[in-house]
Predict the structure.
Amino acid sequence: MAAAVTTKTAWKLQEITAHSSNVSSLVLGKHSGRLLATGGDDCRVNIWSVNKPNCIMSLTGHTTPVESVKINTSEELIVAGSQSGSIRIWDLEAAKILRTLMGHKANICSLDFHPFGGFVASGSMDTNVKLWDVRRKGCVFRYKGHTQAVRCLRFSPDGKWLASSSDDHTVKLWDLAAGKIMCEFTEHMGPVNVVEFHPNEYLLASRSSDRTIRFWDLEKFQVVSCIEEEAIPVRCVLFNPDGCCLYAGCHDALRVYGWEPERCFDVVMVNWGKVADLSVCNNQLIGVSFTQSVVSSFVVDLNRVSKCGSGLHGLVRDDKPLVPPVPMGSSLRRIYDRPSTTCSRPQRVKQNSESERRSPSSEDDREEKESTAEIQNPEDYQEIFQPKNSITRTPPCKSEPFPAPPEDEPTLAKDTSRPSQAADSQTPLPSQENPALIQRPPVAASTPITRVEPSVIPAARNEPIGLKASDFLPAMKNQSLTEIVDDEAMSQIRKGHETMCVVLTSRHKNLDAVRAKWSTGDIKTSMDSAVDINDLSVVVDLLNIINQKASLWKLDLCTVVLPQVEKLLQSKYESYVQTGCTSLKLILQRFLPLITDILAAPPSVGVDISREERLHKCRLCYKQLKNISNIIKNKCGLSGRHGSAFCELHLLMAVLE
């Protein structure tokens, strides 16, 4: 009988390049856990089926980057808010724009669909929370009270309340029918990024940058418990569908929390980076994260995750006695009453301004005509959004779980981490029953080994390039494990300690020097100082900051950056190449038309000093771009993410040829 194969608890499902520019927001469909929507700086909203490589549909119409997206409960509608404050709603099944909603004066930070009625809530940098009637195409109510950006909105499961969290450190609970605030929670000491209702009980969870997760009783309006996070901050939270625990997505980890009393049930290491959203389906947790234009999805097998019990020792408030767990099926507080019919509109409707109550105008019609839903994958679109009958609708109610890959084979490092077991077991002699031992000759750690470093060092790696744990351990003699002596091990570890300290001290000094220049407000001077230091890592650190804000870029800054970009594109470090590509793309999009226009313009009559200086800078940039274009052309043949990035840059630089 074959032995059972041990499968992984968490694994990476796929990685896709979601947009031609940086991804700015993403969300998973909570009903099926199989639908993914991404918003990008390219002003598009792309629809994906999880674990499929091709985009199903691309939604256009926004003219500024998409800051927030949300899919409704039935996964038939999607709403997206932009940097300019506009909101667009698309019907995914009909593949068309449904509504364009205008009224906010700044970035849309948060959106949510009402669970039953045709309403959408929006929160903005302008501090307002607005409730929109999708059918009437107008603002039903405006909730005022926050003093800073509204970061998260959630409707209660029964659709009667709306919770909002803000950078002003508060969580507010609004009564939709009464049109007024019910309660304000002010115990957080920092901006509140996330709020989430318990699926059954009158309980609300909120997460703040003060590194706490607080649970609020919505009957007594008081704190139930407070969980102090570990060193790694929580980025998103989600209650288990039955409400037994709270999943907290941290950097490269999933934590499972209970709240009465507060404790951590389990911790699962997941290499998902900065996870952005979570969904649960088929007892699997789906997590998605993004870095620049790349979106990655991960799966955690919840069958192998502890969701109850006394908690992990030493993680959360072990000094407090634990309360016996509540029996399954019982509840400590009131349960939501979910209506069987569509909820009615809020009774007290505030008289809004004429601009918010106006009927659809010709201007709105024109904007909606400019919004399109481009079906890029007809087969997946027909399968998911236009089924032949309701029984076979996909995403189905009972979709198949993602198959778990087998667990990696244990390595020598794992075996040597338990020397007691290795010492107790005898080494088997090579025989016919152990062919692997015959093919694997033992290698002593003291034997010099020639290692070939990879041509490109990946940005996400789990160990230093060119180093192995065996290099820092005493050598094995006669191919058998020897007892590790503390002094000998420490001497091995300390060999390069002083050198490393010198390198880190120098790096810290260089960054301080650049920071001092930055404080004067002159970006070009800061970049000049970074270049003079002659350390590409410092240049990369500075570019990663400047790339986040295109308004910081000027033509004279391009003359300094382009020679550094040429070096970065030829670097063996993947992170350096990524930064170089991002900077070059930004320069090409913002300045290449200007450079070509100025160089093609006829000479001016008379003396124009400023024009001559600008012409000189354009000539320098053009010459540097020509040099870089040769590098880009040679790298277009690369496969994978870098190949597509270089191809995109090559198209942008076609005007130089």
The two ends are 66 Å apart (CA to CA). Residues 90 and 330 are 40 Å apart (CA to CA). DSSP finds 14 helices and 29 strands in the chain.
